[in-house]
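Q: We require from you a single protein entry containing the residue sequence and its fold in token form, and nothing else.
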Amino acid sequence: AQLVESGGGLVQPGGSLTLSCAASGFAFGWYTMSWYRQAPGKERELVAALSDNSRLRNYADSVKGRFTISRDNAKNTVYLQMNSLKPEDTAVYYCKASSRYTTQIYWGQGTQVAVSS
């Protein structure tokens, strides 16, 4: 089982990026999917989460109104649309899968996002 993130890169302040996380090897539709990020010298923090049935969304206060999490269960993929990016959004972004049906948790390897002029 694995999660593979993509879509990171360098963007100017005010710009947009869309991150993708492709899942394989487990029952994607049973898992809550989350995006976390970790900036240099800081702890990893939750950015956004989306329940298995897509009914529940949760965002960090710092990204509300700017980021949108979505999923496509047919493609086993979760997305993070990031708009109005700020330098403080610079971090490595990680995808996480967790489930109410099992204690198994999966993490991706991370994708770097840098916001700078």
